[in-house]
Fold these 4 entries.
Entry 1:
Amino acid sequence: MAQTVDHLDVAAARDRFSVLKSGFLFFDAPGGSQVPDEVGEAVARAMREASANLGAVYETSRRVGRILEQAEFRAARFLGCEPHEVIFGANMTSLDFMLSRTAARAFQAGDEILVSALDHDGGVAPWLELARDRDLVVRTVELREDTSLDYEDLESKLSERTRVVAFAWASNAVGTVVDARRVCELARRAGALAWIDAVHYAAHRPIDVRAIGADVLICSPYKFCGPHLGVAHGRAEVIEQWRPYKARPAPSTPLGRRFETGTPPFELLAGLGAAIDYLDSIGGFELIMPYERSLGERFLAGISDAVSVYGLPGMDGRVPTFLVNVAGVPAAEVATRLAEQRMAVWAHDSWYSLGLVGRLGYEDQAVRIGFIHYNTVDEVDQLVAALNRLA
């Protein structure tokens, strides 16, 4: 049950992560969050006590059945859907490739898919490859100068041939958040599917697929303190019309399972359930959101003018993820020197956001910094001081 308090108890949450007791400061949550001990224990327990497959009459088989059912139930609660609308896979990108091809069985040559210039390529490449195979058209929705989505450009590109509007709810590079309800409504008016990459968003804000009108939404638990796994929602009225790619004897019920290939990773599903229970136990996103916003505000207020931040200037319209460069210091050197001070950040060229990178103005690489609820004010202050010294 969620705590009946009005603030996040960060110290209590951190105490559940052995890895956070090392003194190393993790600002790399956009690349994958740290994992509380109870998640690892759930994975290990499943491997010790539930090494079996579905459908047998003995106890270990019953245990994996319960793990799968509980994972579907918890994932449905996390996403705001029904358990039979949950689909599990290896990761977001694998699910996107599989589900996009399943949906496209009914598409015709010349049909169009819209993607966003803000997107991670895991949400773009499946449609580009499909377009090459099926003679479809992929069009890109542009951004405003501040990296927010250009909704007028989206409206202008919708047509009677649009079959899918695919977009990232939050940028994994610069943290910009898209108005998902608005995009889903525009897609619905055009008769297109609203297809959401929520990988980065899911770590920072609550999801309610019913409230925004999503047809397909995919996320990855490793971003919100869980194991490496892919989790998708498919709206029942949509996916029940699809013919899945599956081995013929594999289960066809519940609905979501017909789109899963092979034996599920039961141990990871046990970890997923533990991760969602962990988030609930610390108060959920009602407490996480304002705390993470305060960390972002403190970071932006503390850095010197020599530290350039790309994208939106403040915390409005973004999650606490920042792409920065330090004047006169190459990004790779910044990452190396911070690592020497036991601080984790990354330097990269594109961050897999190929439609975004050329618009930001840096020539080679930039440093990505991401805060999450287990980061502390003191950690942010140490990072700010280190960046300002480099500058």
Entry 2:
Amino acid sequence: MRWGELATLLACAGGFAAGASEAQTYPAKTVRLVAPYPPGGPNDLIARIVAQRMTQTLGQQWIVDNRPGRGGNIGTEIVARSPADGYTLVHGGMGTLTLAPFLGKIPYDALRDFAPITVTARVPNALVVHPSLPVKTLKDLIALARARPGTLDYATSGVGSTPHLAAALFVSLAKLNMMHIPYKGSAPAAVDLVAGQVPIAFLPVSPLLPHIEAGKIRALGVSSLQRSDMLRSVPTIAESGLAGFEMNPWFGMLAPAGTPATVIARLNAEIVKFLNTPEAAKQLAAQGADVGANSAEEFLALIKSDLAKWGKVIQDNGIRGE
């Protein structure tokens, strides 16, 4: 063997040893988990559930650092510009990473600036109606909307939100003419729906549950491909006639691009192990979320497919950020 070849082999062996050692010693200090939304919301609460368990499992403190602003873009950018050492992570969302690029100029790139770790949770939307609307099923609603084009309004939590995108896809696939009424958040939209001020809404499942259970509103479908654990009796929109329909918003853990692969693998293994426990499923369900654990490679593929899918929906429907 030539000296050059031997040197190359020794260098590679040294690199593998360093990577293995890095994974074994990580984390050696406090991990900062940036939640780019205000305290008390689903992103923040899910981040805290994971951080608490990782503190126990990995033996180092995980601190949740809320950095809200510009729809989550401020906190997300902080992590994109942080050292790629595994000690600053972001609990990112579908909105900041795969919708925001098409709604305005943002200072980071989801594919270039981040190393995906795992999806933590899914937070499906529901298509709901006020009981005064004479429909019992999704097919009834589509028939009514086609019979009364341009006269039915639907509420969402805001322009460019995941409920808005779910509604836009629904209207497009069903070939309907309906009017969008954007609200500043899910809570005021739900209040007006319950009061009968708007007849239809696309909103996250969690804040709707008490009203659905009380019979104040009627759920016609959920936006995920599988039925939500929170609404097992409610069919998906896809199984109700719009084949292939899916809008299943996610939150996920990401590190800055360039973070060592061994560290990403360690984080994925530990977080996914926790997420696949009954305890995690119960804690997430209390926040209106389903477990979303997957591999880093699957998470990357999801980001890529969502960029392609929702970029087209946004452009086809002429949706612009506020």
Entry 3:
Amino acid sequence: MSAVARVHHPVPLLKNLQYIEPRVAEAPRISLFLDFDGTLSPIVLNPAEACLEPTICPILKRLRDRLDFDLAVISGRALVDVRERIGLNKVIYAGNHGLEIEFESMRFREPRAESLRRELRCVLLQLKLALSETEGLEIEDKSLTLSVHFRRVSEHLHDWVRSVVYSAVGRSKSFTCGEGKMVLEVRPQVTWNKGHAIKWIAREVLPAGSLPVFIGDDVSDEDGFAAIPDGITIRVGEPTETQAQFLLPDVPAVGQFLEWLDHAKPNATLANSQRAGR
């Protein structure tokens, strides 16, 4: 089945938990993949001010400490940035839409993206020169990718900002540009996205046979939804066409779902967890 054919309107999850409860309860393990902005943290005007929703932090710690859960955070932010904002160890972190992945002593960088760092700096300088006087605009250098945030830019300039960015990126044969929620993402032209990152983590890091659950809120998360058609996929935000099966309305609802997940699957004992050193 093609990706387009899977696009549909998702089912509100909190009112329909009975659809997934048997799968959750019976799964030997659950691999929980989570986006950050718009999923674990509310969208804010200034991306530098984003932080983990306080009510979600305790449940993440509990799930992280369970023997039958594995946690991965897959963000468009740079890996070091999202890891600092989550602040938990023994979690798999994937930054730059999965171009960089780390877990304990394991480290992955997508080779082609890594080789284009210097060329990306040239694109960055072009954008800074062209957009330097645009009030409210922020260009975020994430080493492997760039994000041009225009949420605080006057609305009448939005199309002009898009034109400038797409033009600058178009002059390079090595990068592509996509749009998320009030952000333009400049990425290397490589066959790699959040979906590839999820599959790589499942293959290289996680034990076989676990049930994957992915929660995200933006266009870049659609690749992740498409990557695990046999898992549980959840979009956060307003009802919209998506490849996700289910819908949560906002970040607090994500916290509610994670609490439900913790209770819906029988827990390993604390004693066993301590003996395992987790």
Entry 4:
Amino acid sequence: MAMSNVEARATHSLSPTPRGAFGGRGHARGKALSFGGGHRRRVVAAGRFLGDVIGGSTAILLAGLVAAQIGIEGENGLANRLAALIPVTLALLVGIDCLLGVYWSDTTNLMERFRLRSRATLVFAFSAMLVWGREGPTVNVVFVPLVAAAVLVLGCWTEHFIQACLMRSGTWGAPTGILGSGAKSQALARRLMGHPASGLRPVGFIELDGFGGSEPTVHSQDENDPAVGLPVLELREGRGPRAGLETVVAPDSSALPSDPTQLYRMGIRRVLVVNQLGEFPSADVQVRHFDGFVALELSGRPNNPNAGMKRVTDFVIAVPLALFFAPFIGLLAVLIKIVDPGPAFHRQSRIGRHGTCFELLKLRTMYGDAEDRLQHVLATNPSLREEWRMYFKLAQDPRILPYIGHFLRRTSLDELPQLWNVLRGDMSLVGPRPFPAYHMDAFDSEFRDLRVGVTPGLTGLWQISSRSEGNLDVQRAQDIYYIRNRSLWLDLYILIATLPAVIGGRGAR
């Protein structure tokens, strides 16, 4: 990533996804806010609080249903007594989340928030065991873990749904001024405008004496450049800028004024300084304070999850998923054969770990003569030929089967047979998606060597964000971010995020 960290008293990693939450589209130009800064933050916190109430209530009900099915309900009316504890349980959940800052932090990325929510869930589970302990050991062993697991998953889903709603309404994102108006400042503005989930919404540049360093202003000639329309903000001492600015972001420390009170006198709530870490792992960066300076502590070695633990996790999750989806896969196979006679499954050679090839299994979504159709289109349509060169996909692909083919691709259900590849060990549940040889050849040799060093996955960071809308540069950046920062925590987050991404279906082709 070209820019991976924003720092001010704490380091906040900007989201690596170029879209909204779970694949939502970014906004080139931010909408005008209807609320003041304090009101906006309260609305965001209230939305997250509401999500916890909805997710927590649903989690308790679902866990109660599961407990009833496995026979716990018959133990002296246990389910009825637990139902009476629902208000106490919800109060415990939201109280812990409030104390740990789950509701108020709006510039951490989704992965950081997942970690924060996971820690809160562990504290909640321990506290719930104490509250429910008088109901007997069975509750602590069975019911509490069920509630905690459901709280974590549903809490993430509801939070991202509410965040997407707030982003569409223009309420999400603190109005942000970019210090300076030179090339670095404009690049920073473009990146933030393409990452609305970061919680920072650029509204203009700050270019006054003592602000922005000495970098000369650069005027872009690209009409599609989202930073072109950003104005230079007029700061007014004691009253703040007319744009209702909450945050100022500096492209680097050299852009900061020598006297920080010049900014704070304007009513600025906080100042963030960007540190460009390149491809260094940034998920676990820590801030260290020394006399007169601040240091970012980077990991001395790349993250490398235990291969054996990852394989066990794949098996434990993939086996029940394969059994559950087997009848559905059979039904889809029948529908494919009705639309276009021929094999319902398609095998394609893909590049796996260590550069070895394997046969990837998919439900067929294209006509039997798909390659002839593609070559004809590429030979006769220059615009589609250019689109294919950038994405190796076509938005309007003449090869795709009508109705069933588009449905399978939009929902990614054509990928379900790859659970077999996961069980075989060709793939993992989470990792960079396996590419065909022609797709891999489009990247530089250094990236290819890095990519084949990890096992490809059924889902990955790219699939829960830009999906097919990401060009080669986006694919490269997101795969590097995953490989450099991979961990079991990141894998768990991607697995949880996959279902909402599939349901949303945005960016799929």
